[in-house]
Amino acid sequence: MELTKISKKMSYMLRHSTDPLYIDLNGGWADVNIIIKALKERYPEVTRSVVEQIVAQDEKGRYSFDDRKTKIRANQGHSIPGMVIEMEQPEPPEHLYHGTATRFLDSIVQHGLIPMSRQFVHISPDFETAVKVGKRHGKPVVLIIDAKRFVEDGHELYLSANNVWQAKAVPPEYFTIEYLN
Ligand code: HQG
């Protein structure tokens, strides 16, 4: 069974679909049965146990069930306007990391980090993860973010349920560029 393809479709529905049947803007929760029904239209083999398997095995922890397992949500990465996902705001470590591609650097240095098509700029807890994220876009480069100073200066920094830090924007004075060999 094509679990990755099914997961991509589900991720799209939970993060980007504007069909109000699927998702509650307040919290990002969707009814599991509605999601299964929608997935079945494309992948008839989908059952509740397939969805449970995808949630349990996702290598980035992209999804959560609610306590009763009647609702499901993506933990981060949404683009739906007005959707509010509950996130913690723990004290950050001194530094966090944003992986990107060298071809974006000119613009990033000029404008700072902005969310582009998502609701938030995604920020990794460690350097290696940032390199992986950057590689998705081309030749990777890592921005080292002064997370502690960023928060001390009054900027909001959130932590998603699957350990991805998120900010509305990161101005250039809060990062330095670490080129990779
Ligand atoms: C760049 C994956 C030009 C930004 C990963 C990034 C991650 C700018 C790209 C998650 C810019 C947006 C997110 C500016 C930012 N000018 N480019 N001013 N500001 N950018 O994919 O962080 O598989 O939306 O550096 O694991 O790469 O979706 O964000 O390169 O956690 O679950 O614009 O996606 O997770 O790209 O990745 P993306 P991202 P999932």
Features:
ADP-ribosylation fold; 181 residues; Arc Repressor Mutant, subunit A; alpha+beta; three-stranded antiparallel beta sheet; single chain; binds ligand HQG
Explain this structure.
With 181 residues, the protein is α+β, with helices and mostly antiparallel strands. The chain folds into two domains: 3-74, RNA 2'-phosphotransferase, Tpt1/KptA family, N-terminal domain (Arc Repressor Mutant, subunit A, Orthogonal Bundle); 95-179, Alpha-Beta Barrel (ADP-ribosylation fold), CATH 3.20.170.30. It is built from six helices and nine strands. It has helices at 3-16, 32-42, 48-57, 105-111, 127-135, 147-152; strands at residues 30-31, 63-65, 71-74, 95-101, 121-123, 140-146, 158-159, 165-167, 175-178. The strands form three sheets. It has a three-stranded antiparallel beta sheet with strand order 1-3-2. Strands 4-6-9 form a three-stranded antiparallel beta sheet. A hairpin with a 5-residue loop joins β7 and β8. Bound molecules: ligand HQG. Ligand HQG is lined by residues 60, 62, 77, 100-101, 104, 107-108, 111, 113-114, 116-118, 122, 133, 136-137, 164.
What ranges have pLDDT less than 50 throughout 5 or more consecutive residues? none
Number of structural domains: 2
Major sheet strand order: 1-3-2
CATH architecture of the largest domain: Alpha-Beta Barrel
**With helices defined by DSSP (H or I, 4 residues minimum), what is the helix count?**
6
The CATH first-level class of the largest domain comes to Alpha Beta
> What shape does the CA trace take?
globular
Bound molecules: ligand HQG
Give the structural class.
alpha+beta
- Fraction of residues in helices? 25-40%
Approximate strand percentage: 15-25%
Radius of gyration: 17 Å
pLDDT averaged residue by residue: 95
Could you tell me the number of beta strands?
9
